Amino acid sequence: MATPQIITARIRGFLCVNAHPSGCAANVDRQIGIARAAGTRGGIRNALVIGGSTGYGLSSLVTTMFGHGARAMNVCLERPPHGDKPASAGWYNVAAAHRRAQQHQLSLESVNGDAYSNEIKADVIARLKRWSAPLDSVVYSLASPRRVDPDTGQAYTSVLKAVGAPFTSKSLNLGNDHVVSVEIQTASEDEIQSTVKVMGGEDWALWMRALLSEGLLAEDCRAVAYSYVGPELTYPIYRSGTIGKAKEHLEATARALDAELGAKVGGRALVSVAKALVTQASAAIPVVPLYISTLYKVMKEKGTHEGTIEQIVRLFRDHLQPGVTPTLDEESRIRIDDRELDPEVQAAVSRIWADVNSENVFSTTDVAGFKTEFRNLFGFDVPGVDYQQPVDVDVPMV
Fold first, then answer.
1. Do 169 and 231 meet the contact criterion of CB atoms below 8 Å apart?
2. Domain that holds residue 108
3. pTM score, two decimals?
4. Catalytic positions, please?
């Protein structure tokens, strides 16, 4: 057994290499409180969340369970504790969710492994077959930078690059808080296709068709995957870049799956376009941390800011719970980024963006809030947690 220890954050640029178990548990408790307070319990009996340990996936797991009373299956790939070395934040998040599920008489199963693999898909399907009812909800929320094709064994890695021409813009150096100019290089065709293989819709389709063929989707089952569009300001690095090409593939996959589910079980497969938020993935994308810091400043002042759990509670309440007809845009996507893309919000963001520099970045943007939320992801700087108290890092997931 590991000796209890005082854990301090070890952050390197856009990476945090450790996590605090008590802080992660406090984060999960806050999300559970918001989901329960929304008052939308009922309707979703059984839910599968693929990638339910952090970010939108974790909020989806919390919302379906504690907001709608669902029995849930969670698939994730997280690092367990080893000796005195802490586990990953996602490990501690899922461990906290399991403890709270037991306290609230809710059922949660977790499979820790590579969701891209045939072996994990088979394991999850075998477990679901033992359930007494099929799935009402399937959430696909993987954000891995690397994928091994389960049939060929070939490994693919995603890249953050521009498409067509290089892109130069302002960005925030998270190591020293300086506003700098970055040039994003142009991706090769192989790099584009590799990013699509990792972050596109291929694996989601494999999951959905496997579940469908095994009779594991209920009538009117709702499946969702997450995407992002953002403003023109970030188009070259996101929507028009390699990630955007992958998201286009994901959205095309959704339309094909939607037709299949509609014909076979009267269900839906949809993409939900989310707001820009602080996540482990977004912190790694050049330009985006400075944009998010600016956006947060504007939206918090307008009173329209939402965090991840608030977004997902609204998504399920207004679009994904049984009996509710989702509102879609012209490309058949749910848009919960509506408050971000409000013209007044974007006009204010553009005004700040034009003048932001290293000297005024803390006064004109919410970079302090961005950095705090980033630390929160790993269980640090969470209100109510005593970080001077030694904690046991050897926390079991289940």
1. no
2. 14-377
3. 0.96
4. 238
